[in-house]
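#help-structures
NK: newbie question, is this the right format to request a structure? protein is Aldehyde dehydrogenase family protein
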Amino acid sequence: MSGAADGQRLFVGGAWVEPDGGHYAVVDPASEETVGWAPEASRDQVHAACAAAREAFGPWSRTSPEERAAVLGRAAEIIGSRFGPYAELAQAETGATTGTARAMQVGVGMARFRRYARVEPAEWAVAPQINEAGPMGEAGVMGALAVRQPVGVVTCITSYNNPWANPAGKIAPALAMGNTVVVKPAPQDPLSVFRMAEALEAAGAPPGVVNVVCGQSAEVGEAAVESPDVDMVSFTGSTAVGRRIAEACGRDMKRQLMELGGKGAALVFDDADLASAVAGIGTTFSFYSGQICTAPTRVLAQRDVYDRLVEQLDGYARRLKVGDPRDKNTAVGPVISAAHRERVESYVELGRKEGAVAVTGGERPPHEHGFYVAPTLLADCTNEMRVAREEIFGPVVVVVPFDDEDEGVALANDSDYGLIDYVWSGDVARAFRVARQLRSGGVGINTVGRNMEAPFGGFKKSGVGRDVGSYALHAYSEVQAIVWPG
């Protein structure tokens, strides 16, 4: 049994164990009721999980890729068989709308396990090289293979906005490559990750291959990063926390994959399809209630369309129903917690003080329960305002005008972040020309959609490394060269 009547157990070395630190309440952001009781691990229990992963690494890394893929495939089937309850739990933990919980949380999580159940070559030939002279003093032809080898034990620290897709995007490729993992989910909504561990256990993952520890204390994450048994840390979260993790990794030369903050610029040119731009930018209000690092939160509008774009975004935001995420008509659910609601509201107030105009929103919705923030549109902004520079992580869009293409590009690049930017233009040549000048890991042209095989990651303070698709297999591996005389 993974959970007891009084709370969820930790998953360490293939066993479900009681947490040393007791339990804490996981709260539904929509109702403010308790969803369940999450475990608080001690530092010793985290280190025990890391040691269990280290012990399991040797045997797991020596299994065939086909055998590892079969475990991931069975896990996907098990998740599919429990889809309804898993989606209900994800919705209760995160406050996601029903469509988001089903499709983007559990649905994408399941798809990622299926994706890495597909075996891909882990080695490739390197062109033979003719050496005119070598250490032996004779000319020769040298053949070579580049081989992907697993890194070892990977600590996966996951984000609260998607407790299915984000952990699955780390765990599945890491296991496919032959690594073992210690997963530390976000404290706000960890219960779904324990369900994922149950599915992997039922699918035949050997003891110690997957471990899940949890806790509200920063000590839990610190122990999972600093353990000498850990070879790599994969983290999704804020740049501030990512910086501290990177410093700890640097001391021991641990590998790292960092997917950090974003302040996505959406350049809307005067020849853009405004309806398309408004629909894309509008996802900031509704998708995870703006709690997503890829959102087009910083709109740069060419002056000829600025007023029309603000007017249409205003109309779009006002039509969105805010409320119970279980209601099929709801577009905007709550943010994750009362503390985060206060943070978002403080940014809106800061924007007003800086001179921005709250065209839409800015007031707390009149709900008796739940951590709701109204979709908010801040116009007449400048790129120097803090609301235009700092990640708010809520349903807030700022709009900044620009005159010509060069200024638009300069404003977009004038940011500490560089995760995903967007370009809306009817001139495809211009859109691609602008995209190539943007200092960001990804650019959406006339879309906020993603290709789930395309590399994902950021420039600047938005992160280090790339994952998704085959790029994740590279991220969770080391490349070894094997050379022989031809």
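mod (FA): yep, format's fine, and the tokens are attached above. The longest strand covers residues 140-150.
NK: thank you!
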